[in-house]
Amino acid sequence: MTRSLALTLAAVLALAAAASPVWAGHEIAVGLQCDRVGPTNTIGPFLCPGAHDYVKLVNKKGGVDGHRVRVIEIDIKYQVPLAVESYEKMKQEGIVSLMLYGTPQTYALTPKLTEDRIPGTAPGFGRADATDGTKYPYVFPVAASYWSQATAAVKFLLDESKKQGKKVGKVAFLFYDNPAGREPLPILETLARREGFELRTFAVPPPGIEMSAQVLDIGGRFRPDWVITHLFGRSPSVSIKELKRVGYPLDRVVSFVWGAAESDVEAAGWATAEGYLGLQYAGVGQDFPVIQEIVKMYRDEGQAPPKEMAHSVYYNRGVLWAAVHVEAIRNAIKKFGPQIKGEHVKQGFEMIKGVTLGGLVPPLEITPNDHEGGGWVQVWQVKGGKWTRVTDWFKAYPDILQEALKKS
Amino acid sequence: MIHRECGVLKTSYAADMALYPVPLARWTVGAIAAAAFGVFPLLAGDYLLSIANLAAIAVVGAIGLNILTGYTGQISLGHGAFMSVGAYTAAILATRAGLPVWVCLPAGGAMAALVGMIVGSPSLRIKGLYLAIATLAGQFVIEWTINHVTWISGGVQASIYVPRPALGGLLIQSQREMYYFIMTVAALGVVAALNLFRTRAGRAFIAIRDHDVAAEIIGIHIFRYKLLAFAISSFYAGVTGVLYTYYLGIANYEQFTIVTSIDFLAMIIIGGLGSILGSIFGAVFLTLLPIVLRYVVEGIGGLFFTIPDVLNLITNVQLILFGALIVFFLVVEPEGLNKLWRNIKDYFRVWPFAY
Question: Which of B141, B131, B10, B14 shows the shortest CA–CA distance to B74?
Fold first, then answer.
């Protein structure tokens, strides 16, 4: 009985081995924690396919120096216990790097990643002070943290006002009242002191779909020159609708990166949201060579390109996310040879420079000290039913960020 | 027959009061303990141990809530918050005062017990759904306080990193070391809870659950015992929070939200109200279910669908199955997994006869 079972198993394994393509190098595993059904299910179903498709493209083109990259996706439903469990599962499969998802999960896994020497990336979430690579050696924000987003948003609105010949007197900050939402507060307060504008904060309690009182206060009483919003999930679309309702001009509203996707604007209505501004840490739209290559890859296989692509804000962020990992692995292989481990890929991350994928990725430069890669953003605006680019990649106030990092 | 009471003759008071009068039960408990502490941690890899650790932490919390809800009949929707009280107390003591784990663990529990008593004090006047809402308020007040009082939360990020615990020079770091640590605490929790209901206080809890007016008439100080139930239950919750904190290396209130409170209620309802074994069943069941479902759906889904579809499908099918299985188990046996287990035992008790 056992013998026949073993034989069957061996036969199945042999068949499976014969069916898969032959690779010169070995396989390199990367973990991907995703949330397709949890509270952030407006993001995961578009973000994760982007990452998968980029890796598929890389493998199609021969992998990383002949080594196949395998993405192990596990859905964590935005829950900490599942994130821990799936991380252990991925570790068992021998991942060399991990794509983290969600602020609480990133917090919970940071000590483990450091102990196990596996680098994890947290683009656009996680803690801002993880930028400091000497303090959190195995966590890489790789995209603008909430602190960098705060400085960039303020720089943008000061510049815009200057262009229009106006002074910025009052700024409202409408934010989701959780640790991720409150993270930029100290930076904004410092900026308000430095630039001499009055900052007033308006907290939206979870689950963030009821904010009429706060918005009425902004539009009716405080009447700021600009509104910066920092909301998650369903609340950005609510904020667009509410601000429109009280008659606040949406072209004076700048959203952080998680309130600036097609789905947010769609839920509020494209016509309603006309003029709404948003920060982006990856390029938007499909006019990038890498996106076109993915489309071609699908066409060559006789398939339609994935429909997730239409949600280009999150899809492109997924591409950026995977591209950074692939690049780190490439660097690691170049330096340490094919038998790489997490600690090698960590150093691979710290050598990333000049990977722009034709403008989809900002001019990242990740160093052992700076795990954020600069903290670049672009500002995009809703115009005529789509997101259009307003500024090129920029960053601001490095001194304030440095000081905050030193203090934390 | 070793599995029946008949023939088990008690000749002393001690024998009469034993936790497990039937020899088979004693042997089984011994075997399970030996497997849990001796065999399993040596054979299992890091992955299995990590699942076991999460399940064991959940067991402590579920027992705590069952003491309050299942045994004393007081519902609480604030247990997630009590866990965060324990978590932050331990984190603050460990980082700012540099206290060792054997101080932080009970201190986290004690602080949670104190807060639990305050949140539970309306239970004298209100019961049932009304008490649920009162404790729900406690959940939100505690969450808000931790989020906004930076002295507690250690900054706007509201999270405190905690060094790995050390017991007498031995650093508890790997999954295996963590397993021994967590299992020891969980085993202590189980034994303490089993014995609690053989004491005066435990009997008083059950009397209050069954009929509080009658309990008062026979001389049970209702308010004192209700608060005591809240305190003991919150102590368990606090210890759960401390275990999470040491296991993850960080205290963060975002993992102890209202959803956590409801999850723990689901555990004891599925496992069986008013039963320690039921709490264990429920906690293990709810911890394992999403993981097992993932394997099943991935395995079967891979045969019929392409990979991108599977990824989208798995997660959604998991959610549907998760709900369906809970309904299924509750319809099959409304009194929970514990009753299901008792039915099986009762069948074999008289086996091979039907009655």
Answer: B131
> Domains in chain A, please, with CATH?
23-144+285-359 (3.40.50.2300), 146-280+378-407 (3.40.50.2300)
User: Chain A, 290-309: which have a CB under 8 Å from a chain B CB?
Assistant: 306
Q: Write out A82-134 in H/E/C secondary structure.
A: HHHHHHHHHHHCCEEEEECCCHHHHHHHHHHHHHHCCCEECCCCCCHHHHECC
Do residues A254 and A173 lie in contact, with contact meaning Cβ atoms separated by under 8 Å? no
Q: What is the rounded CA–CA span in Å between residue A157 and residue A228? A: 9
Residue B333: pLDDT band (50, 70, 90) is: confident
CB contact under 8 A, B316 and A36: yes
pLDDT of residue A12: 44
Reported as a single tens digit per residue, the pLDDT across A252-290 is: 999 999 999 999 999 999 999 999 999 999 999 999 999
Chain A interface, best mutation among B49, B50, B95, by max A CB count within 10 A: B50
Mark yes or no for CB contact A85/B161 under 8 Å: no
Nearest to A306 among B252, B308, B315 (CB): B308
Decide: pTM greater than 0.90. Answer: no
pLDDT score of A24: 56
Average pLDDT over residues A115-133: 88
| pLDDT confidence of residue B3 | 67
Cβ proximity of B271 and B278 under 8 Å: yes
Look at residue A226 and give its three-state secondary structure: strand
Q: How confident is the model over B177-204, as pLDDT tens digits?
A: 999 999 999 999 999 999 999 999 999 9
Contact B308 A49 (CB under 8 A): yes
Q: Nearest by CB to B248, from A89, A108, A185: name it.
A: A108
Helix (H) or strand (E) holding A69: strand A68-75
A306 contacts B51? CB cut-off 8 A: no
CA atoms within 13 A on the CB side of A359: 11
Whether A170 contacts A195, CB under 8 Å:
no
Q: Quick check: A44 and A57 in contact, CB under 8 A? A: no
- Please list every residue in chain B whose beta carbon sits closer than 8 Å to the beta carbon of residue A81: 54, 58, 255, 287
Q: Does A94 touch chain B (CB under 8 A)?
A: no
- Tell me the two tokens of residue A224: 């700021």
